[in-house]
Design goal:
seven-stranded mixed beta sheet, 341 residues, 11 helices, alpha/beta, 2 domains, Phosphofructokinase_III, Rossmann fold, glycolysis, kinase, binds 6-O-phosphono-beta-D-fructofuranose
Length: 341
């Protein structure tokens, strides 16, 4: 079989482990030819292909980024994009396509599947907000990086008696903020799931600094917003693909906190450091499991599904059930973050 493979959307650590698993299992076990498309859906539209053999995936397991390249590009969003993508798949005699991506890439995958192409998706996003799977590739690494950063910021916060704001990624859901906030012992965690009240933050910080501490760590997800009817006005600034302008909420909070409390405040925007470098063991394992499950599904003739981890099991979910939904942080996890302030 000729099986296409692409990585789309923002990169994450662990993509190469997934590519490696697809190629090793696909070529070695099933005898398929794996055809890589460069730069996500853009490569499918442009016919930009590279054969992927076992030689190409040597030593890539611990590496970050994606050897296929990636792009924020949705074929159905540009004129003739979908037709061009379908034409390339036909010209390359692709019998099934494995798409590794987040919500945008998987949404495009379900559109291509609706046009009759056999498609299997693999979820990746450091934001961890793909619906239906307990975890997506890249999340574990991002949480480790954010937790280490918070640990480091703790010591300088304490030395200078400062409020330190740490802005992490997470547009729609605050998975990185909540989990790294718990793991790093943040005093306040602000996530998109629970719009915040700046008045409450002011009272909390003043009380804490009066009563028992001279410093505080505030972890804020880039997609966090003030609650309606509360005294802070702020509008999320987004780019062309809905990506949030890094640093905007962190800087805005710094000004508000300094004005309201008089405490010396600094912002650290972790930004793309959360997506760079080597994947954790957990991400390598998840990516390897998803890669094997995806190529096995293709081999079995299964289509229009996404690999997902639920508990200990890797399962296949209908793509249509997943596309367009967001997995939010559940209440119990938000409660833990609040309880440990
Ligand atoms: O989609 C994941 C994500 O990491 C978001 O949290 C963030 O808003 C976005 O990517 C940043 O995208 P870009 O790399 O295109 O600036």
């Amino acid at each position: 079989m000729r099986v296409g493979l692409l990585t789309g959307g923002g990169d994450v650590p662990g993509l190469n482990a997934a590519i490696r698993a697809v190629v090793k299992r696909g070529e070695g076990e099933h005898g398929h030819s794996i055809i890589g498309f460069r730069n996500g859906w853009k490569g499918v539209v442009d016919g930009d292909v590279m054969p992927l053999t076992r030689r190409d995936i040597r030593n890539v397991l611990p590496t970050g980024g994606t050897l296929l390249g990636t792009a924020r590009y949705h074929p159905h969003a540009s004129d003739g994009g979908l037709d061009a993508a379908l034409a390339t798949l036909e010209a390359e005699r692709i019998e099934a396509l494995i798409c590794i991506g987040g919500d945008g890439t998987l949404n495009a995958a379900s559109k291509v599947a609706a046009a009759g192409v056999k498609v299997v998706g693999i979820p990746k996003t450091i934001d961890n907000d793909v619906w239906g799977t307990d975890a997506s590739i890249g999340f574990d690494t991002a949480v480790s990086i954010a937790t280490e950063a918070i640990d480091r910021i703790h010591t300088t916060a304490e030395s200078h008696n400062r409020v330190m704001i740490v802005e992490v990624m997470g547009r729609h859901a605050g998975w990185i903020a909540v989990t790294s906030g718990i793991a790093g012992g943040a005093e306040l965690v602000l996530a998109p799931e629970e719009p915040f009240d700046i008045g409450r933050i002011e009272r909390f910080l003043k009380h804490r600094h009066r009563a028992h501490a001279s410093f505080s760590i505030v972890v804020v997800a880039e997609g966090a917003v003030p609650a309606e009817g509360t005294p802070m006005h702020y509008e999320t600034q987004v780019g062309k693909f809905g990506e949030i302008v890094a640093g905007a909420i962190g800087e805005r909070l710094k000004v508000e906190i300094e004005q309201r409390t008089g405490f010396d405040t600094r912002v650290t925007v972790l930004g793309h450091t959360q997506r760079g470098g080597i994947p954790t063991a957990a991400d390598r394992i998840l990516a390897s499991r998803f890669g094997v499950a995806a190529i096995d599904a293709v081999t079995a003739g299964t289509s229009n599904v996404m690999t997902a981890i639920q508990g200990e099991q890797v399962v296949l979910l209908p793509l249509d059930e997943v596309a367009g939904k967001v997995k939010f942080v559940p209440q119990d996890l938000l409660t833990v973050a609040r309880a440990l302030a």
